[in-house]
Each structure stands twice: as structure tokens, then as C-alpha cells.
Amino acid sequence: MNEPASRFWEIAFAVYEALPRQGPGNFACARRALGLCEDLPPSPAVVDLGCGNGGQTLYLTELTSGAIVAIDRHAPSIGRLRAALAERGLGQRVTPLVGDIADPPLPPERFDLVWSEGALYSIGLENALRICHRLLRPGGYLAFTDAVWRTEQPPPEVKASFDLDYPGMGRVEDVIAAIQHAGFALVGHFTLPDDAWWDDFYTPMGQRIAELRRELAGDAEALAILDQIAQEPEMHRRHGDCYAYEFFVARRPGVPGP
What we know:
- α2 (27-35) packs across α3 (55-63).
- 46% of the residues lie in helices and 20% in strands.
- It has 9 helices and 7 strands.
- Strands 3-2-1-4-5-7-6 form a 7-stranded mixed sheet.
- The chain is α/β, with parallel strands linked by helices.
């Protein structure tokens, strides 16, 4: 990695790792999505793929009574999750693992619920859906969020921004087609409301960027990177009607085991 790129990620991690969560979502949305999984076992086996710092993992500890495996490739994020679990006395319920969600170190047909917020796209949605299908027991549920377009012609600056990270981003209909092609039955879906972007994500991000600007006031390169990162919430403020995060819930066909 060259030095400018290395510095960007250093500053980006300093911003994102301090946030309650690393993408749009909130407790109410997690509860609504879980409500679509109507006949989960009383204590389901759950895996959270691409858990980040585990904001949604902690939601799941409140919304379910089962054991949870949380996987992310970024070791510092897993470290933060372990600390949060220890603080809350949840170390026996949640197993945090450093690992690649493209090749999770987990046995097949082990889980009643696969959960993933804003992470599956990073390994290609079609590939990710195959992995999730393999991890689920027959009758198990998949709940995940994915960015989707809400317009056929987004402004050039918006399209260029998403093309950097998610060039294959489609519409809701495209994601549903991918879900069905992967062998799932769609249970339901809904669009995350605007407060799911701001309350636990963009508002804390703005506060963290302000803190770092004060700490790094004499570092012109760092300040320029912070300005770049700050463009994301500002773009959503101006053009949030062009794209959305959608929560999808699907089910692997089959009869659940005992």
C-alpha cells in the first residue's frame, strides 16, 4: 500500500471505529427485520457476517436469546466488540472471530439465522448469498441490508461515489432476483428510514470528525482526508432520495430440524 492510501485508511479508521455502528441501521430496524423471521427456535444459533464493531450484534443479544458468532476481518473492530461484550457480561453468549466472510471458518448448515448489515456486497452479492445459503439449516433465515438505487439516473457525483465502492449496485428488484437465484424464498423487505442513517451513524460521524479536526489541527493532510470523509453525510443530505438501504429477509427452503 502506498503512503497516501495508508494515511487515508489510518484517518478513516480513526473516524469509523469510534462510531456506534459503521453503516446505516438502528435497533428498531433490526427488531422489524427479526419480526419477519416468524418461527425461529426459542434460542436460535446466529451468525453476524461482517459485524464491524458489533453495533447490530449487541442489538441481537437483546432481541434473541441464542448463541451468536460475530465475524469481521478487521481485528481492531473485533477487539472493540470483545471489550463491549465483557463490559456487558455477554462474553458467554457471543463468540467474536477475526475472519473473512468470503471463507468463514464455520461448518455448513449450522445456523438458524444469518445476519449481515451493509457487508455482503463487499465480496459480491451473488457469492455472499451462496455462502449464506450454505451456512443455514433448512428453514433458516437470512436477514441483510444492501444499498440500492432509487432512481435510474442518479447525479454524476452520487454515481461516481458509489462506483468507487459498489460498482455493481442495483435496484431492489435486482437484489430480489439475486436472492431467488441463490435458492432463497423472499420473506419480505423494507427501506431503512432516514433516522437509521443519522441517529447512530452520520450524527456521531460528524461529531467524531469535529473531534479529530481539533486534535489534528496542524496536520494539513489529515484535515484534507477528514474533509473528504465528511462529504459522505453531506451527499446523503443533498441526494438521499436517489439511493437507500433496504433490509431483506429471506428463507432457505426446507423443514427445520429438531
